Amino acid sequence: MDSMTLILFGATGDLAKRKIFPALFNLFVEQKLPRRLSVIGLGRKPYADSEFQAHVELAVRTFSRRSPEDRLILDEFLRSFRYAALNVTNKEGYRELLALVQAREQELGISEQNRMFYLSVAPEFFGVIAENIKQSGLGSGRGWKRLIIEKPFGHDLESARALNDQLSRAFDEDEIYRIDHYLGKPMVQNLDTLVSANPFLKALWNNRFIANVQITASETVGVEERAAYYDGAGAIRDMFQNHMLQLLMMTAMPTASQDTTGNIRRRKSQLLKLLRPISKENAANHVIRGQYEAGTIQDQAVAAYREEPGVDPASTTDTFVAARLWIDDPAWEGVPFYIRTGKRMKEKSTRIVVEFKNPLREASGNAGRESVPNLLIVQINPDEKMSLQLNGKNPLSGRMESVHMDFAMPTHQMPEAYELLLSDAMRGDATFFAKWEEVELAWLWIQPVLDAFEENLLPLHRYPAGSYGPDAASVLLEEQGFHWWLDDASREKELLEVDIG
Ligand SMILES: NC(=O)C1=CN([C@@H]2O[C@H](COP(=O)(O)OP(=O)(O)OC[C@H]3O[C@@H](n4cnc5c(N)ncnc54)[C@H](OP(=O)(O)O)[C@@H]3O)[C@@H](O)[C@H]2O)C=CC1
Ligand SMILES: O=C1O[C@H](COP(=O)(O)O)[C@@H](O)[C@H](O)[C@H]1O
Fold it and tell me: Which SUPFAM superfamilies match (predicted)?
């Protein structure tokens, strides 16, 4: 693609500053942007073009993984940027915007009129912006048009459907790119290849060999400055409905050769359809919700959720959710998938742990105690690495111990999720964007759980900040004889090292 106009709603906001401008700059340096690029930033603040360019420069200097040392390169990048103040509800303003877009297209010799609309604004504006894009003619250029939207995509099943209906009046499904930034993480994008392209893993990727799968996204941060949004959303909407279910889909979807097209999005939807529903009445048996109390994280005392600025002091919002899921597919029958996510936990870690069956141990009970289960650990955040836990014998002590084969992705100059996603969207590759079918299926699955939360059918477990969440989340696994791996590495080492000399 030779040329494009990027029309960025919310260009004065936090996401644009921290993620979008740095990603664009990195792509520019790597020559992955169209040769002729026009960026029109929009917000309500009254910026002159030069002020906006200074704002972009500061964002790049502060947040980019590449240092913009070469002034000439930075200036060339900034020259693409223009700004217009536009209140998104002001219909007339869109005609002026169209005139600006066209003027820039002419100035830059952009004849294709490819237009990318990025809505980095609150979701209540998505509908009105899409409608105004259509009414004003902005979406009727000679080239393609695409819409990038950010989460949250709806608040529940009904609102998500209403939002999708609104968007569908202005954009076709294949023109809508719904960002789930977890799908932009390099290690998540690697999962399909990891399983499909390695015969030894592919052969083992089923219930004959896998005992359980554990997916964790723990965070040390609290609600930060986002109480207004978070207190109405909770971990279930903020993380579980989107990121966590995406990680589940990416892990358990059928592998590529079973599906000749190799279409990841279709395979993910296929998997979601097989996810065993959890009824509202039964939610308490499979889902744990929690909220953090005051505690200590990395030697710093932190406040309870209910004491955070902007949070209702009587809030019952979940800051932690764990669940046990089953997939009604012959390949996964009997394999529990445990998922958990929480704020103010002991460590920042996003990972997938696949625990393999241990026939030695199963056959010989305690006698086979010395062998440990094989684990495949896919660490997504903060480092990106894979690790295989195997059994080995320490030649010095003669003791059997778990050994780890590690492969760490080079952290140096690793592309950010937003770089990969923006670049894909510009090329029209929607593989790592959520399509409507999977978003709807995710809401459908989660709606009874939301209802159970709403009706207080589950206890709200308190957990101290700086812990691994409520103990009840461990009970979910203990019921099948498992435990969360890697929560307490030192305890595990002790358990696993057995003297066999
Ligand atoms: N920040 C983040 O890390 C993440 C954000 N998101 C999502 O991205 C979107 C943007 O978030 P974020 O940047 O944090 O939000 P901010 O509140 O920082 O920015 C909001 C932007 O919207 C603009 N805006 C607000 N009201 C209007 C209006 N009536 N007309 C025109 N522009 C308006 C603001 O412009 P102005 O200030 O000039 O009025 C500003 O540029 C949201 O949907 C959020 O949920 C998703 C994941 C992470
Ligand atoms: O979307 C969100 O994700 C972040 C966690 O993202 P990560 O890339 O740091 O793992 C989370 O803090 C935030 O609440 C949520 O909205």
Answer: Glyceraldehyde-3-phosphate dehydrogenase-like, C-terminal domain, NAD(P)-binding Rossmann-fold domains
Residue 466 backbone zone (phi > 0: left; psi -120 to 50: alpha; other: beta): left
- DSSP symbols for 68-106: ---HHHHHHHHTTEEEEE--TT-HHHHHHHHHHHHHHHH
Q: Which residues contact 92 (CB under 8 A, 6 or more apart)?
A: none
Structure tokens that stand for 203 in this block: 């052969």
Q: pLDDT tens, position by position, for the chain (501 residues)?
A: 789 999 999 999 999 999 999 999 999 999 999 999 999 999 999 999 999 999 999 999 999 988 888 899 999 999 999 999 999 999 999 999 999 999 999 999 998 899 999 999 999 999 999 999 999 999 999 999 999 999 889 999 999 999 999 999 999 999 999 999 999 999 999 999 999 999 999 999 999 999 999 999 999 999 999 999 999 999 999 999 999 999 999 999 998 765 544 699 999 999 999 999 999 999 999 999 999 999 999 999 999 999 999 999 999 999 999 999 999 999 999 999 999 999 999 999 999 999 999 877 666 655 456 678 999 999 999 989 999 999 998 899 888 888 889 988 876 678 999 999 999 999 999 999 999 999 999 999 999 999 999 999 999 999 999 999 999 999 999 999 999 998 876 445 444 443 333
The annotation status of 16 as a binding-site residue, yes or no, is yes
Residue with CA nearest ligand 1 atom 4: 15
Q: How far is the CA of 9 from the centre of ligand 2 (A)?
A: 21
Residue to mutate, 92, 121, 177, ligand 1, most ligand atoms under 8 Å from C-beta: 121
